[in-house]
């Protein structure tokens, strides 16, 4: 009778297979999910030291973007801090969390724990999986939920902070991240002034930059709860300009170029604002600048009009994308990158008004679904990344 090969011999033959570290690190580890990469850092010292450098982080990020160009993600959290807590926690101690979901449907993927030392009430922005958050005391944090690391930014280099507005941007020319802080006079003040500072992650410091050359421009942050949009390498603020002997006020867009750190004006779409306009927003729509107005209408009660600048910086390229009508009082809570509008319906016909959140497709104008959001929320784009893994003065949790 013919003998069967021993299992031990098969195991020994398998052990002869050898993969060079360079092949494993550059062609395999750079394509794995973040959680897997973080676990593999513990395999050996050489892997740990090879995964941390910026080259590995950049390659991993590039591979992630190439493989997730269709399915985007968002991260959202209630705008009231005491509602962050997970109701599904089996323990008596509630844990503050935010939710990662699919961009198009808001279907939940996972909950992400919020570090207890990060106290914030605003999402300033999101770039490459790195969140910039802040609180009302002007304390700012950079936070990467994927690798469970954050850092608190240094205190301001400005004097007294008044009417602060913040923007967050990635600077591709230098592979760096910047936070822009603007302190200005109140809207409607007879004389306007601005103090502007920029924080860069690479230097871990703030520095002052030049203010707009004209003193008749007031930048104001009325984009709440939408983040200041980063489009075409610039951050965009709604602004008011005072012109002429009669001090006539008009609205415009001020764009801050992240590379040159200079401002430029962008005109609003012609006829986009009138006496029926309640509020205006700026957003990013599929990588293009979007302008949104919330306005009164005869039938139904209110509507959102959405314009998109097809060719950046070209006034004639403004195109009215759609008008979204609402029969009930509504409030725009978020505008996703792919163009879904997260709206809060307010039932004001009862003694105790209730709220309902819906996701509206701006192409079909149909309500997609109930996104299962119970509170007014901050929403930002999101992706897994290793950004901050190689940083200094980071706090792990």
From the structure above, extract its key features.
397 residues; mainly beta; five-stranded antiparallel β-sheet; 5 helices
Concise structural overview:
Helices cover 11% and strands 42% of the residues.
Walk me through this protein's architecture.
This protein has helices at 7-15, 21-27, 34-40, 45-51, 54-67, and strands spanning 73-78, 97-102, 108-113, 122-127, 130-134, 140-144, 149-152, 164-171, 176-184, 194-200, 205-209, 217-219, 230-231, 234-243, 248-257, 263-266, 277-285, 288-296, 302-309, 318-326, 329-335, 340-347, 354-361, 367-369, 377-382, 395-396. With 397 residues, the chain is mainly beta. Residues 82-93 have low confidence and may be disordered. It is built from five helices and 26 strands. The termini are far apart. Helices cover 11% and strands 42% of the residues. A five-stranded antiparallel sheet has the order 4-5-6-7-26, with no helix packed on it. Strands 12, 13, 14, 15 and 16 form a five-stranded antiparallel sheet that branches. The chain is globular. Strand 23 (354-361) and strand 24 form a beta hairpin.
Distance between the termini: 62 Å
Mean pLDDT: 84
How much strand? 35-45%
The computed structural class is: mainly beta
Write the layout of secondary structure elements.
Blueprint: H1 7-15, H2 21-27, H3 34-40, H4 45-51, H5 54-67, E1 73-78, E2 97-102, E3 108-113, E4 122-127, E5 130-134, E6 140-144, E7 149-152, E8 164-171, E9 176-184, E10 194-200, E11 205-209, E12 217-219, E13 230-231, E14 234-243, E15 248-257, E16 263-266, E17 277-285, E18 288-296, E19 302-309, E20 318-326, E21 329-335, E22 340-347, E23 354-361, E24 367-369, E25 377-382, E26 395-396
């Amino acid at each position: 009778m013919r003998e069967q090969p021993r299992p031990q011999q098969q195991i020994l033959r398998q052990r002869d297979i050898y993969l060079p570290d360079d092949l494993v690190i550059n062609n395999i580890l750079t394509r794995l999910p973040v959680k897997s990469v973080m676990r593999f850092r513990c395999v050996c010292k050489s892997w740990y030291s090879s995964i941390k450098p910026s080259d590995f982080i950049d390659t991993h990020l590039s591979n992630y973007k190439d493989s997730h160009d269709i399915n985007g993600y968002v991260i959202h959290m209630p705008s009231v801090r005491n509602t962050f807590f997970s109701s599904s926690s089996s323990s008596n101690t509630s844990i503050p969390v935010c939710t990662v979901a699919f961009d198009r449907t808001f279907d939940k993927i996972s909950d992400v724990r919020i570090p207890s030392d990060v106290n914030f009430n605003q999402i300033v922005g999101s770039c490459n999986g790195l969140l910039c958050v802040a609180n009302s005391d002007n304390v700012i944090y950079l936070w990467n939920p994927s690798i469970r690391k954050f850092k608190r930014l240094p205190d301001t280099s400005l004097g007294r902070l008044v009417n602060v507005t913040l923007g967050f941007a990635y600077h591709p020319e230098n592979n760096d991240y910047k936070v822009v802080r603007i302190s200005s006079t109140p809207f409607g003040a007879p004389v306007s002034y601005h103090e502007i500072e920029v924080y860069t992650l690479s230097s871990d410091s703030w520095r002052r930059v030049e203010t707009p050359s004209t003193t008749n421009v007031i930048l104001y942050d009325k984009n709440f709860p939408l983040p200041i949009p980063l489009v075409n390498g610039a951050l965009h603020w709604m602004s008011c300009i005072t012109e002429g002997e009669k001090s006539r006020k008009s609205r415009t867009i001020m764009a801050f170029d992240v590379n040159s750190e200079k401002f430029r004006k962008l005109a609003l779409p012609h006829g986009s604002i009138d006496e029926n306009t309640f509020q205006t927003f700026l957003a990013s729509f599929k990588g293009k600048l979007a302008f949104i107005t919330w306005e009164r209408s005869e039938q139904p009660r209110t509507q959102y009009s959405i314009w998109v600048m097809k060719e950046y910086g070209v006034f004639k390229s403004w195109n009215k994308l759609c008008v979204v009508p609402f029969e009930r009082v509504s409030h725009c809570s978020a505008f996703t990158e792919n163009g879904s509008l997260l709206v809060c319906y307010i039932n004001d016909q009862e003694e105790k008004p209730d709220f309902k959140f819906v996701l509206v497709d701006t192409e079909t104008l149909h309500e997609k679904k109930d996104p299962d959001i119970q509170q007014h929320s901050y929403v930002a784009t999101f992706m897994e990344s290793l950004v901050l893994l190689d940083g200094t003065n980071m706090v792990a949790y």
